[in-house]
Amino acid sequence: MADSPVFLITGASSGIRAAVARSASAGGYRLVLGARSQDKLDALAAELGGDGHARAVATDVTVWEDNERLAQAALDAFGRIDVVFANAGFGAKRGFLEETPEHWRDMVLTNVLGCAYTIRATLPAVRESVGHFLLTSSVAGRVALAGSLYSSTKWAVTGMGQSLRGELEGSGVRVTLIEPGMVDTPFFDNRPSGALVDEDIANAVMYAVSQPPHVDVGEVLIRPVRQTV
User: 42, 92, 36, 86: which is closest to 63 by C-alpha?
Assistant: First the structure.
């Protein structure tokens, strides 16, 4: 176990991120879990085996120092970072007269700047391990949704992943964009029917990270059969 690879996840306290943490743990990874909800993180870390297997670090990805602290906690605890799943984010109602300007600001900072901060804080360690970055974009980062600033943030993440892959060319580090469609997850206030479940996305993540080192799964766009957009 001491030589097991290390999987760092932001926004890890619930939903897709917690499902990925469980799948990664079952796959032999040690976990470093970052999110704002310390109590939920602590419960998940305990479920996954406690300090020798999983560490919980309260993290607001919009704060640079929190990202630095998360990365350093992984190195202090386990000595390496092999996989980074930058997945912290939230949405907003469609319509450019919907939500408050404050909600918009927090969403853009979390979904875009938070992802960039996580990349920056972990990049030296992932380069050293010749590891893997996974960034959560969305179907909405491939198809512009009418009136959706959230969709715009996910287009930004799609571009960020492509830019990161370009910077890392020749390094052996892999970059995967995870692009979920409609998922029945706590992300939504009104839970959709006929949607994917969190474990479907976790399976896609684990497929990408389980490929041989010479295979880079650049994008996984996954949506329910009934979803046409």
Answer: 36
* Contact in structure between 153 and 91 (CB atoms under 8 Å): no
CATH number at residue 160: 3.40.50.720
Q: Is residue 121 part of a domain?
A: yes
| Rounded CA separation 181/87 (Å) | 15
Annotated active-site residue 150? The verdict is: yes
* CA–CA separation, 93 and 98 (whole Å): 6
CB–CB of 43/59 below 8 Å?
A: no
Q: What is the pLDDT of residues 168-207, one digit of tens each?
A: 999 999 999 999 988 876 555 565 667 889 899 999 999 9
pLDDT digits (tens, 9 = 90+) for 40-95: 999 999 999 988 899 999 999 999 999 999 999 999 999 999 999 998 888 899 99
Q: In this structure, is residue 117 part of a structural domain?
A: yes
The active-site residue out of 29, 117, 150, 207 is 150
Q: Is the pTM of this model over 0.85?
A: yes
**Residue-range definition of the domain harbouring residue 122:** 6-222
In the chain, the number of structural domains is: 1
Q: What is the model's pLDDT at position 226? A: 80
Kindly state whether residue 229 falls inside one of the protein's structural domains: no
Structure-token pair, residue 47: 């479920």
Tokens found for residue 118: 């996580």
Residues present in the chain in total:
229
